[in-house]
Amino acid sequence: MVATCLQVVGFVTSFVGWIGVIVTTSTNDWVVTCGYTIPTCRKLDELGSKGLWADCVMATGLYHCKPLVDILILPGYVQACRALMIAASVLGLPAILLLLTVLPCIRMGHEPGVAKYRRAQLAGVLLILLGCLFLWARTESSLHSQHLVQFKQKYLEEFSCLQGD
Question: Pick from 23, 146, 147, 10: which is nearest to 85 by CA?
Fold first, then answer.
């Protein structure tokens, strides 16, 4: 009974995680751009966000997005993040289908228990790979946005020093 519950909980958790990867891939809130604090930018309508598929700006209460359609113009990190997230999303489908066939309430003919065990191992490896690709893409995006913020702060400091003279 406990093993069955653990397998069902594992399947549901994996399924929810895979749906989360798909939703994260499609959102446009990977990097939030703001010159001030977030509440100040919301009041001044200067809050922007960048995603893998579009750059968005919130102005006068409306959310305007410009799709990123020119692949050759995009920076390398955006192309890499797109590829990693699409690979993670695609790897999730066979992993979930394999996990579905391994559940104790599903029988496929007169197969031995070793076959189910091997499918469970393969599904687990695919899900671990999915998680690694997801974390790699998010880390790459976060590191690049951090470098942009540091560059912007350094540029503003240099500019303010020039203005003070």
Answer: 23
Helix (H) or strand (E) holding 93: helix 76-102
- Answer for the pair 22, 130: CB distance below 8 angstroms, yes or no: no
- Determine how β-strand 62-67 pairs with β-strand 31-33: unpaired
Return all residues near 68 (Cβ < 8 A) that are at least 6 apart.
52, 53, 54, 55, 74, 78
Q: What does the pLDDT profile of the chain (165 residues) look like in tens digits?
A: 778 888 888 889 999 999 999 998 888 877 777 767 667 766 666 777 888 888 888 776 677 888 888 877 877 778 888 888 899 999 999 999 998 888 888 887 788 888 888 988 999 999 999 999 988 888 877 666 555 444 444 444 444 444 444
- Partners of 48 in the beta sheet? 33, 57
Three-class DSSP category at 61: coil
Contacts of 120 by beta carbon, 8 Å cutoff, 6+ apart: 98, 99, 102
